[in-house]
Design brief:
- The structure is a single chain.
- The protein is mostly helical.
- Among the domains are: 8-173 and 261-323, no CATH class; 376-445, no CATH class.
- The chain has helices spanning 8-36, 39-42, 46-73, 85-100, 110-114, 116-136, 144-168, 170-175, 178-181, 185-194, 199-214, 225-237, 240-259, 262-265, 268-290, 298-323, 326-343, 350-370, 409-413, 431-445; strands spanning 376-381, 387-392, 424-425.
- Strands 1-2-3 form a 3-stranded antiparallel beta sheet, with no helix packed on it.
- α1 packs parallel to α16 (298-323), α3 packs antiparallel against α4 and α4 packs antiparallel against α6 (116-136).
- The longest helix has 29 residues, at 8-36.
- The protein is globular and about 75 Å long.
- The termini are far apart.
- The relative contact order is 0.10.
- It comes from Punica granatum.
- Keywords: Membrane, Transmembrane, Transmembrane helix.
- This is DUF4220 domain-containing protein.
């Protein structure tokens, strides 16, 4: 007598609904990464980092496994999916979008960027599987046009991820001459103080310029002594709070260049491809609405609608994150700088004046939104004799985790964890002391 360890109900569910389950799982992981992946830079909590790391790994695995299940179901006349060939082809094409990943995370570690060749090979393999499934369903395929459209959108998203990994690889950063060709810090700071009126605009513009100069240090590029002296002079002459905000914004720029799609998306080609992929998703949704669905199972139709509406919602969410970010304000300030340089040589046309006013108003709106990320002093303490003030921001609006790793030899010897944040005591510790500590950290970091 044999004992079946797996119940029949589980086997039946696996045979009938496993593909749909993994499609929903893949979409859920994409939604999780879009919303929560930015929290990796906002907090140093290990559990949150673990959840994001797990979601990052599971997202690619779930989409790959779903494509494998769809590929394996082809040619099986006894399969529960034999009558859903058109939807299978559409789903396999749709999963390429998920394999392309969200804009908020492309890599979890710098070593992942080196593996861009592996992801390029993965694109070839997954695309071949999707094309094979499409060809198998072609004679009776009612979703031929939406499937082809989703294939194009999926390839675009996948190539965006491969290119983002390639540009963020250390070898590519080392080959870049941009840090050497950047203008002197003196001219950058002069521009930020003279032509950028608002504090938030000045902060982001200054931080961006310092980031462009010092990003070469990531790959051990040489830094001119003149720029080093100028940066020291700047940090020593400013307040501790402002210096900390500049560093936090610099780290935000650095993180997004190394671990997200920001470099790929924020280019003329990136804008064009993003518009094409979003338009394709909307067109595929409109075409699917008009297709007769009486031959499809109602659950399969529901899953397809979830994928299509979910993809459109995630694209809109990514677009809003892209618009209301520091990079958009930097782009506007670059245009303002370029327009001011041209204005010195010739007068503005009516069209230039119109765009100038438009950039002016939009930069004000962005500055108001980004000012929510400004750190403030908050009181902490149990009783009146134990009151401390912490300079920080709420987790949702943070640009960085606002903590630094440190090792205190005495605390280590006494088996005590070192403090992760610098606090200002209500009674003994003045802001001057905090400022000197921050300036010291800035000096040794430069």
């Amino acid at each position: 007598m044999t004992i079946d360890l797996i119940p029949e109900s589980v086997k039946k569910f696996w045979n009938e609904w496993i593909i749909q389950s993994f499609l929903i799982l893949s979409f859920s992981l994409q939604m999780f990464l879009v919303i929560f992946a930015p929290f990796r830079k906002k907090t140093s909590n290990k559990w949150i980092s673990f959840l994001i790391w797990s979601g990052y790994l599971l997202a690619e695995w779930a989409a790959t496994f779903a494509i494998g299940l769809i590929f394996r179901s082809q040619g099986d006349n006894d399969s529960a999916f034999a009558d859903a060939g058109s939807l299978m082809a559409f789903w396999s094409s749709f999963l390429l979008l998920h394999l392309g990943g969200p804009d908020t995370i492309t890599a979890f570690a710098l070593a992942d960027n080196v593996l861009w060749v592996r992801h390029l090979l993965g694109l070839v393999v997954h695309l071949s599987a999707a094309v094979y499934v499409f060809l198998c369903a072609l004679p009776k395929d009612k979703l031929m046009v939406p499937t082809i459209l989703m294939l194009i959108a999926g390839v675009i998203k996948y190539l965006e991820r491969v290119r983002a990994l390639f540009l963020a690889s250390l070898d590519k950063l080392q080959e870049s001459d941009e840090p050497r060709q950047h203008r002197t810090l003196r001219s950058q700071i002069a521009l930020s103080t003279k032509r950028v009126p608002l504090e938030e605009e000045k902060l982001i513009w200054t931080s961006y310029n310092y980031f462009k100069v010092f990003q070469g240090l990531i790959v051990d590029l040489y830094l001119a002594w003149s720029k080093r002296r100028q940066s020291r002079k700047f940090f020593r002459s400013t307040t501790a709070e402002y210096a900390l905000r500049v560093i936090l914004t610099e780290l935000n720029f650095m993180y997004e260049v190394l671990y997200t799609k920001v470099v790929v998306v924020r280019s003329k080609l990136g804008y064009l491809l993003r518009a094409i992929s979003f338009s394709i998703v909307i067109c595929a949704l409109a075409l699917f609405v008009r297709v007769e669905k009486h031959r499809f199972h109602h659950v399969d139709v529901l899953v397809t609608y979830i994928l299509l509406f979910g993809a459109a919602a995630l694209e809109v969410t990514s677009l809003l994150m892209l618009i209301f970010s520091e990079w958009t304000l930097v782009s506007i300030l670059k245009r303002i700088e370029h327009r001011n340089m041209i204005k010195e040589r010739k007068s503005d046309s009516v069209l230039d004046h119109y765009f100038s006013r438009l950039d002016h108003y939009f930069s004000r709106i962005l500055s108001c939104v980004l000012s929510l990320k400004k750190p403030t002093w908050s009181k902490h303490g149990i009783g009146p004799d134990d009151v401390k003030y912490e300079f920080g921001t709420r987790v949702v609006f943070r640009r960085w985790s606002e903590s630094i790793s440190g090792c205190n030899l005495i605390s280590y010897s006494m088996s005590q964890r070192p403090a992760r944040k610098i606090r200002k005591s209500c009674w003994g510790c003045s802001s001057l002391f905090t400022g000197k500590i921050l300036c010291f950290l800035v000096t040794i970091s430069i």
